[in-house]
Amino acid sequence: LVIQRDTGHHVAYTTREVGQYLVVEASIGVIVIWDKKTTVFIKLAPSYKGRVCGLCGNFDQRSSNDFTTRDHMVVDSELDFGNSWKEAPTCPDVSVTPDPCARNPHRLSWAQKQCSIIKSSVFSVCHSKVDPKPFYEACVHDSCSCDTGGDCECFCSAVASYAQECTKEGACVFWRTPDLCPVFCDYYNPPDECEWHYEPCGNRSFETCRTVNGIHSNISVSYLEGKRASARRDAVPMRLGTQGAGGLSPPRCRVCSTSLERQKESGRGRGPQEAADQPKTGCLGLQTRPRS
User: Fold this and answer.
1) Is the dihedral of CA 62, 68, 74, 78 positive or negative?
2) Lowest-confidence range among 69-73, 93-97, 254-258, 265-269?
3) Phi-psi map region of 213: left, alpha, beta (phi>0 left; psi -120 to 50 alpha)
4) Taking CA 30 as the corner, what is the angle to CA 25 and CA 32, rounded to the nearest 5 degrees?
5) What is the mean pLDDT of the chain?
6) Mutual orientation of helices 132-145 and 105-115 as an angle, nearest 10°?
7) Strand (E) or helix (H) holding 229
């Protein structure tokens, strides 16, 4: 997406945290949503429908023509599509798409076992609404790719992507457990002051300032999973975030943490070789005591 603007023209934007995501909202009708790990979403205002092109498609609600090349031809090959949008004509075309599971065969059985949750009864309420097959295949692909210590990060992000699409279609799935891609909220609660609540399917009553610094958006992000904070009325008043964010947050409350973040904080993450030689059988959280 390339948006032309006058030289020297400043695009106003705000940043805020919604659930586990960082949301950057620009005054030109573009929202970038980042899970602070491996996933980025770009959302556009309705006024852009049918007016964009590129690797993200043309935003006309028709997936059949998303692989439209720079020359306005619809192709079936991912390589042909991707190569057509390379920035520098002097760059060589990509001729082969690497298969991470073939490159890391020791990861394949683990990835298939872990990712099977997408096709399991856990997500049965969603299967008729969102086809699990492409998400399962993407999960296996990504999980095979992460063989240098980030195995859980790729797997958990892949499953979270499917869960998010289910939420958009009205199928709320509580798939995280203390033993599978857990999110820790109570761990960070200051006693008698704040309460973090994990919402797997977002919270449509989540308070947010819809107009900040002249930016107004009707693009909803209330479906995003993650923490939702509430504070005792007699303890911590609600106020605007300190970084110009649109969301409301108690100033002394801390964020929720994933198991991977807990590993990084505690210094107990595994080394690359250990992760490559011994893939996990489950993506578990660490049993760490809360800080004083």
Assistant:
1) negative
2) 265-269
3) left
4) 60
5) 74
6) 140
7) strand 226-231
Question: Residue written as tokens 């720079």?
Answer: 70
Given a contact cutoff of 8 angstroms between Cβ atoms, the answer to whether 128 and 111 are in contact is no
Cα–Cα distance, 227 to 22 (Å, whole number): 12
Report which residue type is found at 65.
Answer: N
* Domain extent listing, the chain: 13-84, 100-177+268-277, 183-258
pLDDT digits (tens, 9 = 90+) for 205-259: 444 444 444 445 555 665 677 665 554 444 443 333 333 333 334 444 455 555 4
Helix (H) or strand (E) holding 13: strand 13-18
End-to-end Cα distance, the chain: 47
> What whole-number distance in Å separates Cα of residue 211 and Cα of residue 237?
21
Could you list the beta-strand ranges (E) of 51-193: 183-184
Contact 283, 150 (CB under 8 A): no
Q: Chain centroid to CA 246: how far? A: 19
Q: What is the pTM of this model?
A: 0.68
Place of tokens 């491996």: 38
- The Cα–Cα gap between 2 and 187 comes to 43
* Tokens linked to 203: 């919270």
Distance, CA of 249 to CA of 243 (rounded, Å): 11
- In this structure, what token pair is assigned to residue 53? 């092109």
pLDDT at 107 over 60: yes
